[in-house]
Structures are given as structure tokens and as C-alpha cells.
Amino acid sequence: MKKTLISTTMKTAIAATLSLLVAQALGLRFSSSAGIITILDIFETRKATIKGGLKRSLSATIALVLGILVFEIFDYKTWAFGLYLLLFVPISFLLKIELGLGPSSVVVTHLLSYGEINSSIIFNELGLIFIGTGFAMLTNLYAPESQDELKKWIENIDGDIKDILIFFGDTLVNNLDVKIYEGKIKKLEDDINKALDLAIIENDNRIENSKNLMIGLSHREREMDLLMEMYDDLKSIPKEFADGKLISDLMIDTANNLSDNGDIIKVKKRIEFLQEHFHMMELPETHEDFIIQSSIFQVFRSLNQFIDISKIISNIPRN
């Protein structure tokens, strides 16, 4: 966050100053407006800056044409500027270029100050628009890539997912409290959200989109949801449960083979076999036994989905 703030501050200060200097060097009147337009047109990512700059350029051009028509027809009076706004505001919203309302109207106030219109005035205002927008776009032509940082995040996330699965397996055979890992799950959730935010910015900053990283993180987000579901189910299975070792081994094997398509398929077959085994067992006699058996089936279901998602992740092309 701090790094992004410093980068945006530096880019804004440099670009606005350069646009003002260029406008002054070209002898344009109201040259400070070029700097203001640059400031308003700088966004966090390359994609947003280009999109916003194009919208504001279109907005300013339409505003200029509309302002000229209104002032030429109704004279260069203050009330005519109000009429211009009555026309321009709804047009902006209809064309979805309303973010240009402010800077575009500033350009139109220049016409009011001139009190007349000629070709040099038009070129002056168009120059301010394109210099301001142009420097804003230039600021994000270079955007440092975050691929290495993102891959590090993903590596840590995968490690945490594996650790949590192994710990869950251990709770079924050892005297461990599954609640110990509440903080670990919360950290995993926070890390995935932070990585997704970074992936969105990275995707918008690259000329070639980086969607595969976002897709992979979205699938890991689903894996985290399954871990939370397993967390709730495991709390209902007592440590002394007779078949706890079987389920424990499955969870640990799943964790250790998530990146190995061949072995994970074998684990999946074992899960399906055990599911069938538990289906053939006698119906539970007590409410407590019913809750335990229901939780076991839910764990099997979650593990199956976990494996399916891991197979999808392993088949996503790497950038």
C-alpha cells in the first residue's frame, strides 16, 4: 500500500508538472489547466488510466463543441453556462463519460472568459486537453510487474493449505484441538484476498493480461472455503472414533499429493471406496452417532471437491 502511494504520488507530481511546462512552452493560455487535467486523469493502473483518459478526452471534445454552440447562439453570458450544463450533464451520463464533467466544464469556462471564439482559441483548448490526457497516459506506460511477488504469495498460500490439511488429519488421531488453527485459516483468507487484489492490479497493468493468476487464486479461495467447512465438520468427530485413522491418512495423503496428478487420482479412488464403505455401515442408533457419520460424509465430499479443484489448478497454464 505504501509503495503504491509513493509511486502514484511521484507519477502525479512529475506528469502534472511536465504537462504544465509543455503547455507553457507552447504558449497556451490557461496552461495550468493541462496540469489539472493530468492529475484528474491518473488512475492506479494502466488500463484504468487509458480508459479514463479516453473518456475524458471525448467528454472534453463534446463539451467544447456544445459550449461553442450555446455561447454563439445565446451570447457569452453566465446564464448561458448554466444552459450548457443543463444539456451537457445528461449527455455525459447517457454516454457514460460523466467522470469528465469537471475538467470538461473547466475548459468551457475558458470560452466564457474569452468572450469570443476563433480557431486559435479552439486549438488552445484542444491542446490543453490532449497534453493533460497524454501525460496522464504516459505515466502508466511503464508499470512494474508483480509476477514474482504474486508467485511468492501463491507458494505461501499453497504451503498453508497443505499444513492445514495435515493438521486436520492429525486431530483425528492425536489429542489436538482443531480450534488451534482458527488463526491459520483467517490468515489464509487474508493472504488470498491480498493476493487477489494484487493480481487484479497486475492484470490491468500488463499489455498481455495475466488472468491465469487470478483464476488460480479464485480456485484457491474455493479451497479455503472447503477447509472452513471441514473445520466445522471435524469438530463433531471425537478423537476416539474407531475409523479416525483411515480419514486422517486420507487427509494427509491429499495434502501431500495436491500437486501430483497421478497420485492424487489414487487418493480420490480411496476416498470413493471409503465413502461406499461407510454407506454400507448400519444406520446410527443415536443422535450423536448420526452427527458423527454425517460429518464424516461431509469431510469425504469436501476432500473430493478439494482434489477436483487441485486438478483444475494444475492444468492452468503458467504465465
Q: Could you explain the architecture of this structure?
A:
This protein has 319 residues and is mostly helical. Helices cover 78% and strands 0% of the residues. It is built from 12 helices and no strands. The protein is elongated and about 95 Å long.
Poorly predicted ranges (pLDDT <50, ≥5 residues)? none
Q: What sequence of helices (H) and strands (E) makes up the elements?
A: HHHHHHHHHHHH
Relative helix content: over 70%
Count of DSSP E strands? 0
What is the radius of gyration computed over CA atoms, rounded to a whole number of angstroms?
A: 30 Å
Largest sheet: none
Outline type: elongated
Strand content: under 5%
Q: Helix tally?
A: 12
- End-to-end CA span: 25 Å
The computed structural class is mainly alpha
Mean pLDDT level: 79
Summarize the structure.
With 319 residues, this protein is an all-alpha fold.
Which structural traits does this protein have?
mainly alpha
How is this fold's topology laid out?
Blueprint: H1 2-25, H2 32-41, H3 46-74, H4 78-94, H5 101-114, H6 119-139, H7 147-171, H8 182-205, H9 211-234, H10 244-256, H11 261-279, H12 287-314
